[in-house]
Design brief:
Order of helices and strands: HHHHHHHH
Structural class: mainly alpha
Shape: elongated
Helix content: over 70%
Number of helices: 8
Low-confidence stretches: none
Number of domains: 1
């Protein structure tokens, strides 16, 4: 069976939480649950680093505004991780060229990352922190559930991931006004900080 469905699903999940994807796939491979995970993802050092970074993301992703900073820092990391994981999966399977798999995984990760980042900007316009916690927890559980499901039912998991990606893009359109509001607030905050820093260097009369 082609590894393409697993490549697509891992790409979608990497755009949301790349460290969770690496950790889950590595654990599934190391424990013998699946033989489709390459040895490079099962290495102890890779699992330890992925586990530590996953814990960092779990915390940062639930703090208002910190989550958006974290997302900005991962605009490159998540798509690259999605591409690398996809290429490794294809190399292990041999049923799909690694370059093609990397392109699918990377582009899918980029799209799901943009959906995640945009949704968080909209959520951050709410003054209470509980929305962030709820959305972040749902994302964590969703990634874990879909990646686990993909190991046993790759095609069905890919269909679900595609549906969630499409749904997220549609929701993003409806949240456009909130996203613009968040960006205006952030720009205003940066300008206020810049003026405050400039004012602190003005000479006293």
């Amino acid at each position: 069976m082609s590894v393409l469905p697993l490549v697509f699903t891992s790409g979608w999940a990497s755009g949301i939480n790349a460290y969770a994807v690496v950790l889950l796939l590595g654990v599934f491979g190391a424990t013998g649950i699946t033989d489709e995970v390459p040895a490079s993802l099962q290495r102890t050092d890779v699992l330890v680093v992925a586990g530590v970074l996953f814990l960092c993301e779990v915390v940062a992703d639930k703090i208002p505004y910190v989550d958006s900073v974290w997302d900005s820092a991962h605009t490159v990391i998540r798509p690259v991780a999605g591409a690398v994981v996809a290429a490794l999966l294809a190399g292990e399977s041999g049923s799909l060229p690694e370059l093609a798999a990397g392109a699918v995984g990377g582009s899918t990760a980029l799209m799901s990352h943009l959906v995640k980042a945009g949704t968080r900007m909209a959520v951050n316009t709410s003054p209470e922190p509980f929305s962030n916690i709820a959305v972040s927890t749902a994302e964590d559980l969703g990634v874990a559930g879909i990646v686990t499901f993909a190991i046993f039912h790759p095609l069905a998991a890919a269909i679900i991931a595609a549906a969630l990606l499409l749904l997220g893009m549609v929701i993003l359109v409806f949240l456009a006004s909130r996203i613009r509001r968040f960006l205006r607030r952030r720009a205003q905050r940066h300008e206020e900080n810049r003026l405050a820093g400039t004012g602190s260097h003005w000479p006293l009369d």
